[in-house]
Amino acid sequence: MKKETKLIRTQSKRSGNKEHSVPLYLTSSFMFDNAEHARSLFSDETEGNIYSRYSNPNTDEFISKMVALENTEDGFAFSSGMAAVFAGFAALLKAGDHILATRALFGSSYQILTNILPKWGIESTFIDSNSEDSWENDIRENTKMLFVESPSNPGLDIVDLEKSGALCKKYGLIFHVDNCFATPILQTPADFGADLISHSATKYIDGQGRVLGGVLVGKNNLINEIRYFARHTGPALSPFNAWLLSKSLETLPLRMEKHCSNAIILAEKLTENSEILSVKYPFLNSHPKYELAKNQMKFGGGIVTIEIRGDLGRINRFIDALELISRSSNLGDTRTIITHPASTTHSKLTENERSLVNITDQTIRISVGLEDVDDIYQDINNSLLKSK
Ligand SMILES: Cc1ncc(COP(=O)(O)O)c(C=O)c1O
Fold it and tell me: How far is the CA of 329 from the centre of ligand 1 (A)?
């Protein structure tokens, strides 16, 4: 089980006005005291803010909280989760390098690996999340990074982080984990040897469906390279979004606890429903990696993935009949959201690629919100009955 998170204090970003929240520094640039100050900031002889594409007190606050929560050394904040994931590859790899990645990934991550990085001579091999013991066979001379998502979107595959960390150590690979579904409240991959951790802050970290954001945290030497890459290519998080995300982190543990307690109750109820073909949730003992999930996560997460009986017409009728639950492609919101991955988030994959990661026309991803769980269940059950 994940250890308790530590207390975070961010007094340093406040002005002299004794404001309780860190003020919003909505500024694109910062002033220099004199010509010498400008010169010394640009030559890294003095620390300080120059321009918000480089740094800003609000993004610094957000980054330092994420670094502390993830038990890592340093970080950089991005305009979206995908900007963070992409920078984790683009800043650290070069033509001729090879990535080993679990096949069960968020759709856009899969697109980057299959269609974008190959244009620059970076290749990937996809491995099965459930067969860690054979991954070694796919390591090549030029393999530089292992990229995993755990739990995965939307199939909720669980990757053994300890085994992955040991493999990366043995072969000198950068161990990169997308920790979006778990958040640092449920698991801290750095404790298992992860060198780099990416997040879509758009999801649970904001948690209220308001802003896009992303962050990469990890080892100093890697973040230094990422910072150089990001400062000059420009995917910086806006100060306003950073301010919101920093405030959101104050309620992240409470929200995660409620998302997870609602999710397990819902998963158990859905298991009993005869209209449901399958229910996947990391803390249900029917999950193939239940024991591992219990060991490396504090709770089972806020996502439940189900398969509904019937053809695509029935699935569409079910989605259309929902009244309380939102039809949207986001997740991690206070409000429950239902997504049909095959026609939305994972629609760019071929049918064969989807079937390799168990996404069928019947698959529905439920991002369980903070509403009364009986109301959530009732909406699902009513829609199942109406769509028969
Ligand atoms: C696991 C995972 N990683 C990355 C992303 C991308 O995040 P963003 O939409 O903030 O770019 C998502 C989005 O759903 C996701 O689920």
Answer: 10
